[in-house]
Amino acid sequence: xxxxxxxxxxxxxxxxxxxxxxxxxxxxxxKARSPGGRLATRRIAGAxxxxxxxFFTVRTPAFQRxxxxxxxxxxxxxxxxxxxxxxxxxxxxxxxxxxxxAKDLAVGLDVSCATRVVSVRDSGSExxxxxxxxxxxxxxxxxxxxxxxxxxxxxxDAAIELDDRLMxxxxxxxxxxxxxxxxxxxxxxxxxxxxxxxxxxxxxxxVAKGVxxxxxxxxxxxxxxxxxxxGRDTADVVAGLLDLAAPWLADAGIGEAHVKKWRFAxxxxxxxxxxxxxxxxxxxxxxDAFDGPRIEAAHNSGLAAARxxxx
Length: 311
Description:
18 strands, alpha+beta, 2 domains, Polyamine Oxidase, Chain A, domain 2, FAD/NAD(P)-binding domain, 9 helices, six-stranded mixed sheet, globular
């Protein structure tokens, strides 16, 4: 069996790892320059900042096994057990940045980045994954792990019946500020603040978090603020984000300030199952829109996708 996986985020990489371990020929393609999706890390002027997922928790045995392996090899560590709440689930982070986990999963896999898929179609005898340069990757099965609106657009020429609820899934947007500083920000221990007000959903002190050697702050604007400012000029967005960050910056000087926009940040109504399988069983949709918008859910969705093809 030959499988092409569209999307080298956590779900796609986990699915590829599981399939390859079972002897399946797997290729992963992604339009980004490196694998990871929202396991995203930037390095700016000596600072390291996660600008997608800030941490993750563990609640299922399948993900626990993965995290135990990462922990034993020093790839993840516990940041805290909550941010001023009574919740006791450990918050895990990657000291080398969240993207290091994607790079670890990608070792030994056939992953092609900077490769934009424009359509997935059925030729009758095989599936064809068409790349924007005109080349074609052929497969017996296809797994698509991109955000659902993108997945459905890729499958528009495929002769498969899609559930209407998949087609109506929408996402909240997130705009992130990444800023280097000349002194630590005023973020109370453990260095993270979750949903402090209606305009901000998360603030992280990347030194206190354990990922940066020099002071740097990551701020995620709320879905409402991000939607309202999405189309504005970049300079205006940066100024607005710095205003939002002011309570935690105090007198700290800004070195560099960058913006990252996540168009498909959080699915508003996640699909209740860990993946979706076409009637013929040869196309699987997976990702963080399935079973909840969490790192753990994305991981387990990738496992479910692989096991659906292996069944």
